[in-house]
Amino acid sequence: MTAFDRRDATATLILRLGLSWFMFLWAAHKIITPAQYQGLARHFDGLEIALWQVYLVAAVQIVLCTAMALGALRPVSYGALALMHAYTVSRRWEGFLDPFAVNGNGFPVNRNQVIDLAVMAAFVALVLLIHRDRFSLGGWMSHRMGARWWQ
């Protein structure tokens, strides 16, 4: 592995761990405060969801975050979390049109949407650089065993 390859592998490792941690925190919050997520589903999607559904989504996300942190089943784990985040971004697009809006107390009301967009860009970069993600279980398996399905 060249110095260039090590630098790319390190960059994708940092990106992968940061994104998996970000998504894990959102999944953990679904377990800690499930009623908040029921309210978000009602507000943004017009759906009434049961607590068990919130917990199920959180569990699936935690499994995917763990796989992503390890770099296992990369197309599945990276892709699924990227699609979940893209769904979140698509539901909140109005905030992108007014990123500097503040409420009566001077609080920036659309800053989470701006953060969401940056995270989406990071997901796109990680998916595009998946072949450079050598410091991962999938990268190690494909290098060691030639097992392309781990990629």
Alpha-beta content class: mainly alpha
Gyration radius, to the nearest Å? Answer: 18 Å
Number of domains: 1
How helical, in percent, are the residues?
over 70%
Describe the global form: globular
Distance between the termini: 18 Å
Describe what this molecule looks like in 3D.
By secondary structure, the chain is an all-alpha fold. It has one domain. Helix content is 74%, strand content 0%. It is built from 7 helices and no strands. The longest helix has 30 residues, at 3-32. The model has no long low-confidence stretch (mean pLDDT 91).
Provide a quick synopsis of the model.
The chain has 151 residues and is mainly α. It is 74% helix and 0% strand.
Describe the SSE topology.
Elements (H helix, E strand, L loop, with lengths): L2 H30 L1 H12 L5 H20 L3 H18 L2 H4 L13 H18 L8 H9 L6
Structural descriptors:
globular; membrane; transmembrane; DoxX family membrane protein; 151 residues; mainly alpha; single chain
